[in-house]
Protein 1
Amino acid sequence: MKNYQMYINGTWKNASDNATRTLTDPANGEPLATVPEATPADVDEAVAAARNAFDTTAWGSSDNALNRASLMKALATRLRENAARFAELDTRNCGKPLAESEADVADAANCLDYFAGLATKVTGETVPVPMNMQSMVVREPIGVAAQIVPWNYPLLMATWKLAPALAAGCTVVLKPSELTPLSMLELCRLMDEVGIPAGVVNVVTGVGEVAGVALSNHPDIDKIAFTGGTDTGMKIMAAAAKGIKNVTLELGGKNPVVVFADADLDKSAEWIAFAAFANQGEVCSAGSRALVQRSIYDQVIERVAAIAQTIKLGHGLDEGVRMGPVVSQEHYAKVTGYIEKAKAEGCRLVCGGKHPAGEAFANGNFIEPTIFADVSPAHTLFREEVFGPVLSVTPFDTEEEAIQLANDTEYGLAAGVFTENLTRANRVVKCIRAGIVWVNNYHPTFNELPWGGYKKSGIGRELGTYGIEAYLETKQININLDEGQLGWY
Ligand code: NDP
């Protein structure tokens, strides 16, 4: 078992009180590693390092952009060279199947490359004004960014925040989830190797209620970027409000997947299963709420259930596994609690709904892919984010009803629409209040496109050119070209 330390100001540190937490493999409960539990004093030290690197070094200056880009590209290269090791680590730490961790690592490297490309393309503008002035708008890094990330995509969610911040010229204090900090700490080793200067990126490991609270309330940060649950997002926003800090929130979703009678049923069924069950359903954008036109309702349920029952569960490192355990015992209790509630409220259990039988699953947080049919807006399952492998299915009759049901949620992150009629697809897409809509597919995510939600799914966008905006300030500069006197007095 490896004992990790935190990365603060380019050095490896224990917590100031030497407290540690032992992480376990969610597939079998075996001890995996120990990590420090950061104290508020550790957070202070990390913020001071980031502040110092931002205020007193050339890291964030515009003439350092090419250097920042080179360092980020070097980091992407080193990450690719170590891809197998990182993928294995994320699978052991959070449970996801290896193929998914491999895709995450590849995406993380591509994200670093994408934003490295943008580092040298932060430009301003010259604007004509009604005086003899040269008036310009320039963009500058926002400063010290506090970044708080969740456990479902440990490396990738961290990279989505880190890459635009570094490209913009910010310095960073990042807090991974207490459950899944390992790949981020390993990334710090690579940052050290490629020469990212001390203090530019600092990682504090620890619990949200201590390290997260200390970080988000810290007076010396300039921005908070958060991905996680909506309730925590509200606390982050309140902390940001106290200091008038810029904030970006990527929160939950109860994402509708609308299936019209004219959809290609075989293709749609596989995408619907993928929407609901990829990454154990522990995805903010999971398509967890299928809305199916009544004439094909039974057929769709039958086909998706048939696929769900073929999904191989097991340790994420085992060959052919397509679903691992959920991340923790606490989260297992939350997800199975939702399953019991759905049963008690009268939703019809189609498949799954229990811990898989067998010795191999005995000590892991496994839950079978689960489908409930006949779920109505009155049911808890229709409204609340389960964040596990649980799909609800609801019938509808008309396009208007489908749109009304799709939007009948306080969230607005993602949605899917399945139809062979592209005129209909275009019409429905425009009526759905969500930041991401997939038509005849679900989940593909691109570094080039903005990611984020409407309504309670968040504020701001990550990725794409929108992603770097979140780390830039805007300054107007007016240079007087008039040689005369002001003449006011
Ligand atoms: P949280 O929102 O609690 O955790 C996300 C991050 O915030 C973690 O790093 C966490 O630290 C930190 N954090 C927790 N409390 C605070 C706080 N008061 N101030 C600052 N930071 C804090 O998610 P959970 O892991 O508890 O999961 C709860 C639910 O949130 C899930 O069941 C799911 O519904 C949703 N969720 C959504 C995600 C998404 O991608 N939108 C991702 C993860 C969860 P720590 O881990 O130490 O608690």
Note: The two ends are 76 Å apart (CA to CA).
Protein 2
Amino acid sequence: MPQQYETLLLERRDRVAIVTINRPDKRNALNIKVVITGAGDKAFIAGADIAEFAGRTAMMQRDVMTARSLFTAIDTFPKPIIAMINGYCLGGGCELALACDLRIASEAASFGQPEINLGIIPGGGGTQRLTRLVGEGKAMEMILTGDIIDAKTAFAIGLVNHVVPADLLEAKTMEIANRIVTRSPIALGLAKEAVKLASRSNLDEGLRREVDLFALCFSTEDKDEGVSAFLEKRKPEFKGK
Ligand code: COA
């Protein structure tokens, strides 16, 4: 049974945790309480709760964005995080998906940064992470027009890793998650850190830090286990040590 919070469901399936944003009547709009799939079959997350914008001053909004830092928490979390996108993935919802490590979408999903329609711009990393993922031209078009694109287009521009029929979304996501969790958790964390460095550092610094992170793997029991298992032609059993 999923553990239930006011706007969040947390379910553990063996070594994979599923976090469901649970405000289907508001298309899973992100209010402050929410911290990665959306409940219901319509929306992943329809964006920030626009009702909370009304009457907010610049300083209030700034405090909300910096105190919450949900996107940074996801981004820097030492375990892989997959966004399972079942419907509308708009505004802050798209930004949340962008902060995740992989994005798996249903054919029914749609994507957009429609903030421009409200007279504002993306503020949860949309101008930065989307641009790094799909390139300046595509990001600029999405952000300046506020247009919503379908899942196939999102796949074509590299915004999502896979698009599958709605009824196969969970199975595909769990298949990938279950393959990832058989790997060394330490190596996964270091790999995530190293890959994310690519868009945040120059090539020389990135390559230098990659070598450091690579060398760090040699301090782990998991590296000994991985190498031994290969040489002994058996499956490794990683312990996260
Ligand atoms: N913030 C607050 N409430 C939202 C919301 C959001 N981002 N997105 C949807 N809702 C609410 C609607 O106000 C409506 O509430 P109500 O039933 O109390 O009137 C409810 O969710 C259902 O929305 P509705 O528009 O009727 O559903 P739909 O399926 O026809 O359309 C969307 C879904 C997502 C396309 C549409 O709601 C929409 O465009 N939302 C805003 C998206 C956006 O601009 N996000 C960026 C915010 S920065």
Note: The pocket of coenzyme A is lined by residues 26-27, 29, 42, 46-51, 88, 90-92, 114-115, 118 (CB under 6 Å).
Protein 3
Amino acid sequence: MRLSSSFLPTLKEDPAEAQIISHRLMLRTGMVRQMSSGIYAWLPLGLRVLDNISRIVREEQNAINAQEVLMPTLQSADLWKRSGRYDAYGPEMLRIVDRHKRDLLYGPTNEEMITDIFGQFIKSYKELPQLLYQIQWKFRDEIRPRFGVMRGREFYMKDGYSFDLNYEDAVVTYHKMMLSYLRTFQRIGVKAIPMLADTGPIGGDLSHEFIILAPTGESGIYFDSDFTEQNWLEMPVDTNDKESLAAFFQRMTRFYAATDEKHDQNEWQKVPESRRCEGRGIEVGQIFYFGTKYTEAMNVSVIGPDSDKINPHMGSYGIGVSRLVGAIIESSHDDQGIIWPDTIAPFKAVIINLGLKNQACKDACEALYKMDQEQLLYDDRDERAGVKFADADLMGHPWQIIIGPRGIGNNVVEIKRRETGERTEVSIEQVMNYISSYQG
Ligand code: 5CA
């Protein structure tokens, strides 16, 4: 994308409405714009990040054979009356009446709808397990929307739902999803730590929250620092083998990790002092096992091996995709601006042309830009070098490729790594190679 003709409306001043750094940086870089309280429009730069996160989430869900669906945002109130949650959910649910006076609602979550869909099609235990997910907008009429996209009213969520024949099988699915989440967050470039959690309005008796460390987080957290040393992508777990999954789960739960709600001082004392980490964190995902809560209430069953009727055991699995955008910035920025992890950055690199009037510079920039127009942002604006550098740091592209009259005479360009500030000179032919083979 050429910066001179793109829709990247950056702000010069800090917006007054933003209390935390991620919100400030998202507004300053023109990623989002608030349209009503807690409701945001995603502009090109922000949407690219949202799409990149969604892509990784999708790949890791598909890798454990979860199947993607897309359910409507509007749901019939009748569904929620069947589960008993229509009255129980309270004022967070946005209730709507259509022209025929039928009660609808903007879905805050989809346990009822997916259970209904499942019940319409799946009739035998032989068709279990089933694992379905979607990435879709949700609405919760939060009393105090704040911190930008982190606690919005309309927000983007990956929500997954599982159906198993019994408790033992449902636990295998829970373990599988746990591993898939750890891999997802590692690929996204954040350290998310699973912590035992309360189940709230979703219900059930087994749940983990995934928490990213950030000083502005809403929960106090305690964890064993050895957890963050684990490489989940290289862990040899066979997701089709329940013993292998159970062994992984046992290994994982060896590390102490708890939010202040579940913190246990006795257990905490058993962690070696040098490994005790305390701080604050942001919840970017949560998984639940809640058994037959919805299948029983909504009278959904399958025929079991002995021709008896069985209510399948369910779990649900959420990732706050839009919240993650803010949470990543909270945990990855400096005084100059955002520092995007490579895998979800809106652009791989920015090309900074310091010699707009110099034909050799222009030619070099154009040639480079043509190599990957989708992933490169070309700063071809008629602006001072200082402005271009500041904007590049602010927007947080992992790489800056700086092309100026002096270097280009010797066929070299300067490359700056945003994360470390490290600078290298390479020949113009080597730039893309250097970037794609960089190993931290
Ligand atoms: N049905 C379950 C799992 S699919 C569920 O709704 N879980 S949840 O309530 O924990 O939400 C899943 C994730 O959505 C949370 O972990 C959080 O990251 C995100 N989320 C929840 N509320 C908001 C909000 N108001 N703004 C932004 N993200 C939110």
Note: Residues 109, 111, 140, 142, 151-152, 155, 157, 159, 202, 283-286, 316-318, 320, 322-323 surround 5CA (CB under 6 Å).
